[in-house]
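User: Could you check the structure of this?
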Amino acid sequence: MYMRRSGIIIKSLDDEVLLIDEVTDSIFNLNQMGTAVWNLLNEPRTIEEIVEVLQAAFPDVSTEIIAEDTNQLLNRLVDKGLLQVT
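Assistant: Sure, the predicted structure tokens are below.
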């Protein structure tokens, strides 16, 4: 399961969201789908749960593309220390 790490500041700017890690002074920007994933992670979720919700929100995008993009995003967020895997 994936969950947000505590201590991340969230700033909304027009069409994107910035995640600011005060510990590392790094900034990570999210597009619309990335923001949807981040918002879902207000509680621990599996990738399957996330993909299911995104498929309903983006019905014109194939499940395979959503799953691949979600997996890549989750891996990047974990690598940046913004998410925890439980």
